[in-house]
Amino acid sequence: MEFGTGNGYSNGNGYTNGNGHTNGNGNYNGNGHVNGNGKANGAKVVKMKPMDSELLREQGHIMVDFIADYYKNLQDSPQDFPVLSQVQPGYLRDMLPDSAPERPESLKELLDDVSKKIMPGITHWQSPSYFAYYASSTSVAGFLGEMLNAGLSVVGFTWLTSPAATELEIIVLDWLAKLLQLPDHFLSTGKGNGGGVIQGTGCEAVLVVVLAARDRILKKVGKTLLPQLVVYGSDQTHSSFRKACLIGGIHEENIRLLKTDSSTNYGMPPESLEEAISHDLAKGFIPFFICATVGTTSSAAVDPLVPLGNIAKKYGIWLHVDAAYAGNACICPEYRKFIDGIENADSFNMNAHKWLFANQTCSPLWVKVCWFYLILNLLFN
Ligand code: PLP
């Protein structure tokens, strides 16, 4: 297998040839780094240029060639890339030094290492022969977007830290919400104070809404009642739900995973849900969260959102819809029916890195914020 040969980094005038990087004695030379043996002999310390534009241009091209060759080879000779990595656990430790190298290496050496040591441990998710979990999802557009993002290195934690980041996120998530025909209350321009925000992963999205729902109910009933809070999912719900609840302090024994079977195509039976809620209420528990799924991970089941939404509404319970992979398909008019009933949900998430050609990871989450709780928040915070 050859990766990225003959394209500049292997012809001797690459990273090691004295244009700003390693020289013979293993230190940094000349233009851009520390030269000689540093301050000890009075040598001048030159300013570091971590994002030297010419270096970026030169090495960026080499890296793009390396990646483009990878995709070409993946396509042309899939037999050289077993989808399932053939290495044994711990294989990499024997191939790498015990501690970080003290001397820099050339980009050519690094990419050779990637070919020899890293590639064997890669599961080729983007291979045309990959059929596990979700279909290969990256794309040139997604890749270029990531490149731009890495290049600008935008920090977007408030509007001020990069206004375009916040504004673009809000606008694009409104576009996506419209493509999915989500109800108006999930749009930033809709009534109320809802909208979409990108989370790192589907697991994070579920955690965020469990915490939001928990805070909402605790504001109403009082913090001391945390041990009484109860949540509902099904035995097909993704494991991130249980994890989110545990992180959120919900007692393990208060996580109800309702049994499903083939009679409902492994969807959550609304009758079992209502029965469980009534039973919990009678015992003094506080039902506050239902996690429904459109496209369960292990069985592709779709929970019936219309009756589940009616139950959530009747008992004032937060309904979240996790449509991590299948939600993407609902953009197509012929599949939109799978999220019919979303009107009664409080939140909805899907993973654009699954079927929407975004690179790992991009998990849009939409939340409907109710005026009543906003006012409550303002009064008590
Ligand atoms: N929910 C469902 C239904 C999923 O299929 C997955 C991913 O496999 C997740 C949640 C978790 O998503 P992520 O891997 O982005 O955390």
From TrEMBL:
Cofactors named for this entry: pyridoxal 5'-phosphate
Start and end residues of each stretch annotated as Disordered: 17-41
Start-end of Gly residues biased regions: 17-35
Superkingdom as given in the UniProt entry: Eukaryota
Annotated InterPro entries: Aromatic_deC, PyrdxlP-dep_de-COase, PyrdxlP-dep_Trfase, PyrdxlP-dep_Trfase_major
Record keywords, A-Z: Decarboxylase, Lyase, Pyridoxal phosphate
Alphabetized GO MF terms: carboxy-lyase activity; pyridoxal phosphate binding
GO biological process: amino acid metabolic process; carboxylic acid metabolic process
Residues where N6-(pyridoxal phosphate)lysine is found: 354
Family recorded in the similarity comment: Belongs to the group II decarboxylase family.
Protein's UniProt name: L-tyrosine decarboxylase
Origin species: Arabidopsis thaliana
